[in-house]
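Batch 3, record 17
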Amino acid sequence: MSWLPTLITDTPEQGYEIAIKMSRMAVKMTQPDDAARSKMRQDYSNNAESLIMSSHVVATNFQTVAQANDFWRR
Amino acid sequence: MSWLPTLITDTPEQGYEIAIKMSRMAVKMTQPDDAARSKMRQDYSNNAESLIMSSHVVATNFQTVAQANDFWRR
Amino acid sequence: MSWLPTLITDTPEQGYEIAIKMSRMAVKMTQPDDAARSKMRQDYSNNAESLIMSSHVVATNFQTVAQANDFWRR
Amino acid sequence: MSWLPTLITDTPEQGYEIAIKMSRMAVKMTQPDDAARSKMRQDYSNNAESLIMSSHVVATNFQTVAQANDFWRR
Amino acid sequence: MSWLPTLITDTPEQGYEIAIKMSRMAVKMTQPDDAARSKMRQDYSNNAESLIMSSHVVATNFQTVAQANDFWRR
Amino acid sequence: MSWLPTLITDTPEQGYEIAIKMSRMAVKMTQPDDAARSKMRQDYSNNAESLIMSSHVVATNFQTVAQANDFWRR
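Prediction for the assembled complex:
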């Protein structure tokens, strides 16, 4: 089963979850080693700039998901 | 209740508030520990580059919210 | 009165002013202390990378304002 | 044969693969030496900020691919 | 006379010039002192990362100008 | 003759070439000295973060070119 079967969700909050998933998947594909990623998590989750940068990635992905869902207007 | 029930707001200023909320939520989801975030706040709120980076995240999220609201044109 | 009553302006230059205002407001909301911001201003206004980063935030916000105004085409 | 014959894919996941390919191609065109890139890979794949930055590039490219595919809505 | 009377140009190249002008204007508005900017120019024009960051700002502004001109399609 | 006569290309790959050209042109306009740019090239082409940042600029420019070409859908 695909990790990204669709960009369509029922609610903005679900769309945000997909945006987070997409943001993490790119990291996972570049660094597939679970232990290596866990080790880094300790660092970046306590580094303000890293967290702000992460939030920017989510913002970009969320924009895509929101457009896909016509902003859940209806 | 959802933290993001809708992207639709009455005014641009309310849309901006949502953009800020979205920007912070990504940080919160990556670092859920309140004490850890408070500690970092002291640092990044006195660091010009961190503040500029934060403003960029808000700008990206606001663009999404503004599109959702058809830029509050009507 | 709202600090952002509308995204609609008569001219591109006025739209650019709003983009700058929006870029600064996110900083102000994260660091509301006027003295703290003034102190940082001295630093980032003499730091080329900070200025370039600021210009990027304005560019993102201006894109939103320009779209809102249908690029002042008419 | 072209490395980028089309932006159209059957699924979002395939679109994501193209976004990753596009992100890497720009690096390859700037640094065509395979050995030089391999050497750097060791570094950036263990550097949280580099990985977050990479994820942002993928997010931007994915937005383009998603728009090209009308977000795989149909 | 306005420094940005219109986003409409005859050619892509002229649009690119406006994008550069817009990118510089944000810097000028944050640091209005000519001598201070000249001093920094020496630094950032010999710093690869600063130049790449500058190019990103131009890219964002150019996207806006290109949209305004309907990409000079006709 | 213009260095950017049109954004329209026959294929996505040609569009990607234009995106790279645009990304480099902004650098060239800020640092017109060929020797200065060659010197920096040695540095940034062996620096992972610089390469990732470059790839982001290309991604932004490619998005513009892809929109101009209606994503080469037809």
